[in-house]
Amino acid sequence: MSAESAPQVLGPNAVVVERMRAVRKAQDLSVHDLVERLADIGRNDITANKIWNMQTGRVKPTFDAVLAIANALGVSPLTFLTVPDDADLSIEIAPSVEISPARFNAWTTGARPLPGGDEDLFAEHHPYGTGLTRRQGTPEERAQALVTRLSARLAEASQVITALETEAAEFSAGVGELADENLPEEQRRAINALTRSLGMELPTESGDEQA
Questions:
Q1: CATH value at residue 28
Q2: Which of 32, 71, 75, 84 is most buried by its number of CB atoms within 10 A?
Q3: Count of domains in the chain?
Q4: Which pLDDT does position 137 carry in this prediction?
């Protein structure tokens, strides 16, 4: 493989910095905008100069700063510790250990151990709150963990259902408003197909009813 085609190799600090930059830019925020948000949560010590130094590699991002910046950007700290699975990268987590983005993500989120790692040990001490069942503890404790996990999932599902019902009502109202519009036949067929798939019907035009 030629040097030109080789994937970029990043260390953990570089991954964190690049992800912080990507999230900030995705929110259309400048470094100074981020500094203002940090100041709003009482982190006046994280200045624009400090952020620029992180981005240029002059200083390493501290865990404390990573948490503060995640807070200011409204994202999980894990956002900075994961990368797109299909990124053309290799993450060097140690001088002799390079792994793919997908394997890096699985490791940092507690889904899979590193290559050669002990599966049982990894499962016993995986991160809390990830939705995975811990193997340690008594059967009663593990059962309670499963109940708690299921309850949380049901609550999330209920919220999603409520949101979908609201959106469906809004969509239905929008469909009703379109009934009297002189839409091109192609658009009307597309809307009819969508409403039928949702168990709804687009009212026909008065002319169609008379025909």
A1: 1.10.260.40
A2: 75
A3: 2
A4: 54
